Amino acid sequence: MFKFLKGVVGGSGTGPKDLPYNIGEPYPSAWGSWTHQRGTSKEDGSSVSIFSLSGSSSQDGHLAAGRNGVKRLRTVRHPNILSFLHSSEAEISDGSTMKHTIYIVTEPVMPLSEKIKELNLTGTQRDEYFAWGLHQISKAVSFLNNDCKLVHGNVCLASVVVTPTLDWKLHAFDVLSEFDGNSEASNSAMLQYEWLIGSQYKPMELVKSDWGSIRKSPPWAIDSWGLGCLIYELFSGMKLSKTEELRNTSFIPKSLLPDYQRLLSSTPSRRLNPLKLIDNSEYFHNKLVETIQFMEILNLKDSVEKDSFFRKLPNLAEQLPRQIVLKKLLPLLSSALEFGSAAAPALTALLKMGSWLSTEEFNIKVLPTIVKLFASNDRAIRVALLQHIDQFGESLSSQIVDEQVFPHVANGFADTSAFLRELTLKSMLVLAPKLSQRTISGSLLKYLSKLQVDEEPAIRTNTTILLGNIASYLNDATRKRVLINAFTVRALRDTFSPARAAGIMALSATISYYDMAEISTRILPNIVVLTSDPDGDVRTKAFQAIDQFLLIAKQHHEKLITGDTNETAGAGVPSIAGNASLLGWAMSSLTLKGKASEHGSLASANATTTPDLTTSNPSSDTASSAVNISDQPRPSSPTSTDGGWGEADSGLLQEDHDNDKEGWDDIEPLEEQKPPSLASIQAAQQRPVVHQKSQNTSFSQPKTAATRTSKAGDEDDLWGPVAVPAPRTVPHIVNVQPAAPKEDDGLWGSIAVAPPKTTSRPLKTKASAALDDSDPWAAIAAPPPTTKAKPLSLGRGRGTKPASARLGAQRIDRNSSGS
Known about the structure:
Strand content: 5-15%
Shape: elongated
Helix content: 40-55%
Distance between the termini: 138 Å
Number of strands: 12
Structural class: alpha+beta
Number of helices: 30
């Protein structure tokens, strides 16, 4: 018999050395004669609880009851019953004597009495937590009594333990036995081991050993009495010493008092069924119980209920006991998000709860879930992650960002939603410092290259600002290839005025990365053009930037004179106003203002959380309204290129750079235009200038060819040989009339526009009348028709109109004559 029970217990080995767990420090209290100790697994170091029971011989009554408890614990499984992991029985030498010991290994738990002292809850929070715990123990007892037809027999404070997630679980199954009112042998374990139950916990029929009455009672009669004892010990804070103390109800909450009295009814058949206690008690209807119950059956809820619940959860969590929120609700919420049963608003609640954790706990309990969520295909989840990335981005390691986070975030750069593209762009402010140079050069810059020609003007603007902010994370070679091309060739020529302003600010913010040659030949010439920009804010920033770069040029000049060339170009130059908040400007730029024609509407995934877009100064729009836009050079459309940073079509001098692979490789350096030679100028001066006398136009657009002419016979222009070549892109000139030939030479003759290759045909005027000089329209009067008009007799003139019958007769005669 002993060998059989030993096999059931699962004993294998001869002592604790063969137990695959390390036994640690014991807890101060445990049920009955058992010892509750902390433990860890030898395999993976995970925490466990180890219960041990020793006896002088294998036939000891405590050991026999303990074997019954081990067998029941292995076979009975329920969420609110302690989880069994391993068991063993061994003989241990204690000096001259041998002791038989049973070991039970379970999930890590703590005695309820110790956990209550540790939490130290008071008032409403204590009542809510006790309600949740009693709810769990009542379900466990109801499962044993109603579903399994088993009687626990010893429900009390000592038979309840608490998990790390603050769940209450029932154990101490030494007296557990089947209940069958028709079988006298059904209560064999109860009959054999009822002496293990303290007399203060026994109902009257058990005290009297009235087994006939017990068999006639419902299965829950004994355990309902035990629930009443548990309630008393919970709220009184004292261990029950005698049955008469149960009559003191001053500690019991009023909402629970009626059920408490029914649980302790002197008549076994009238005691309250634990199942009805769960369903009907007003005491269990509180915020904590309802919140945890909703989370546990989340898969059964529809999307509307989930969305409403998770939007209220952040505020609700502040009202619940903090320890319960962090140890119970937070793991439930993390699991729900990880497996897709939670809606996107749950992420807000998760991060709020996570903010109450220490950095180490946050990295262990919250961060792994967030990293997994980046792989989600749910657009709402992705939006929520990007909107709150500043709350957890610093906690992400560089390796995790580079290998697990960025590959998924990068999908947002090409998303059809402009709002998601914008959020993805802004997230790079947090993620870019953690990316490797290989990822930045091979992936990130290619995405930014395409975003700088995005159809949304705000995205183009913020891309420029982002490049200015992450310039310090680029290596020197990449900065040489990327920054100037991105800021001058694209940003300064953008049709959206805030984008042009952003380009100026980005150049000023990255001033320390440019040498003097780049400043003088590639940066200043492009900024000078914007001093006549239609937008006042752009003009202001252009003048400020010019002053800043000219100061560098002056310092460079002084260093060349003194022979000191060690310092960098931008050293010691203060940044212009507005650059200090460059980062903040990028993060608060999601609502467009200005003309509706300058931009399109942004797609929004969450209207309540949409930030503001980069905006131009309204006052500058008003100030620039008087400026004729046709008078200003209009930048080429930023969306005119398929990829890369566009074709450099400026006439400015630029240096040749190595090709790169980040999206700027399609920008070819502009060829330098050589000044015309003296022979070419003299040849152009001898070329006659032909002007149309009969045509007077109000607008004339010069050609971009750099051909210069002057009147023959005049003396040479002093500046002709060194005249600056005309740029390819020339602003439209208003009200420019062709110059009439004069007897004396003009100073600008050497750079006059060459005559067109094909001259317009002179307008033919009527021979019978001379031109009237007083008529302003005479020069552009319509020429006479090339076909001669028919005589008035045919009815086409203004004379007497012939009769229609005569015309018809003539046509009839012609037809008859031709037939």
